[in-house]
Amino acid sequence: MKNKLSPTSYRLLSVRSGQIYDDTGWMLDPPGETTPSLLRAEYACKQINLNPPSTGIFRFADWLPFHQYLELSEAPYTYKSKELASVLGLKNLWITFSGYWPDKGIHMSTCSFKELEAFSVCSRLGSHPGKIVVVASAGNTARAFARVCSDNDIPLLLCVPEDNIDALWSDRPFSPSVHLVCTASGSDYFDAIALSNLVANLPGFLAEGGAKNIARRDGMGTTVLSAVMAIGRIPDYYFQAVGSGTGAIAAWEANLRLLADGRFGNHKMKLMVSQNEPFTPMYDAWKAGSRELLPLDENLARQQVEQIFSKVLSNRKPPYSITGGLFDALQDTGGDILKVNNTSAIAAAELFAETEGIDIHPAAAVALASLIQAIGDNRIDPEADIMLNITGGGEKLFKESHTLHYLTPDHVFKPGAGKEELNEVMQVLFKDIREDLRVS
Questions:
Q1: How far apart are CA 21 and CA 44, in angstroms?
Q2: Radius of gyration of the chain from Cα atoms?
Q3: What's the mean per-residue pLDDT of the chain?
Q4: Alpha carbons 333 and 351: distance in angstroms, whole number
Q5: What is the CATH number of domain 77-111+216-398?
């Protein structure tokens, strides 16, 4: 199949200026523009053509910054709910599931939609060889990148809070090309991001880019493409829990491409995203009518993150305010942010398992709880097409049937680590490849 899929033709649009750029291989920001803005891929193919299901996520390659075909990917799976929909009183509830659910024919071995990001980013990386990719994560993203990079011998450095490393498991050993460094116990995702930024500035390393990477967003956007192909039209509502909001931005961008395609409707689905209280920085800003995030005490933020059910929803610097970010996506779609407490999220997880027959991740439970909340507030037309993005599930089932291997830290950085310590550690971890690159 590798020889049958050609690289995708696309250019990059600065959402703020409207300027079009050729992708130099790993462009993350509009060159020469002083005001921050996301870039957006503008694909030459305006009407998407699907590849065979056997190609996994690359069945949507027309709308991915695709440079290199990678084996073992899976596409999201969308189906019309019966049992859960009946309990909720909904006529057209469509569940897009990313995870491990053999009965539905989906076998994502990391049990998370972060796998979609990892395959897409690593595919784009095919145009930028010879660098060590640096990824910051609170857990699920790191697990996904570790698995994809292990399977494809891609040099990778993960930066993860030490308290979150129990999320770094796999059903098979990790490749020596994958290394893990941690911020010390008591740190959070924001600290891991700060560490990754320091490392990415060293010679020979390449920042994955997070929300700024078009491949990450368009990989996540395949959840919407999956739903639309199953429904036959653009949904009316889109529900997802958000930590950074990148998945919701991706959903909005996919919606815009589907409008240009012209075959699936002419409306924008309402983005109904949710945060897990008490950590709700985007909810607080949105309800205050503020494009900018409100001031938040660092110590209070850490305390709040410790309390939430879904630890992955803990980004203190999300792409909310940036042009083309979540604030713009919500405004453009008439969307909203809801907040969900732990009790409601736990109850939602139990309800999904009882009605649909599979365990789901805490973030997905937050999304379902927000849907239940919106129904209770009479904010949803019960006959509308509703897409519920179950961003992770089947982990309990997977762990029951597989022997697990865990990635252990190569180094733990204490607060205040300097460039000298960073460079020394990286020289040791990537000695062979750095010598090949002649990095001093």
A1: 13
A2: 20
A3: 94
A4: 29
A5: 3.40.50.1100
Q: Is the peptide bond before 278 cis (omega within 30 degrees of 0)?
A: yes
CB burial of 160-179 (b: ≥16 within 10 Å; e: otherwise) equals: bbbbbbebbbbeeebbebbb
Token digits for 240? Answer: 């997802």
Comparing CA positions, the residue from 159, 239, 206 lying closest to residue 425 is 159
pLDDT tens-digit readout, 301-356: 999 999 999 999 999 899 999 999 999 999 999 999 999 999 999 999 999 999 99
Whether 225 contacts 60, CB under 8 Å: yes
Output the six-digit token pair for 361: 């991740």
Q: Identify the helix (H) or strand (E) that includes residue 32.
A: none
Q: How far is CA 221 from the centre of its chain?
A: 9
Instruction: Return d(Cα 59, Cα 203) in angstroms, integer.
Output: 35
Tell me the one-letter amino acid at 157: L
CA distance 146 to 175: 8
Distance of CA 205 to the CA centre of its chain: 22
Q: Shortest CA distance to 38 belongs to which of 66, 20, 16, 18?
A: 16
Domain ranges of the chain: 77-111+216-398
The DSSP line for 50-104 is PPPGGGGGGGGGGGS---S--TT----EEEE-SHHHHHHT-SEEEEEE-SEEGGG
Residues 6 or more apart whose Cβ sits within 8 Å of residue 417: 195, 198
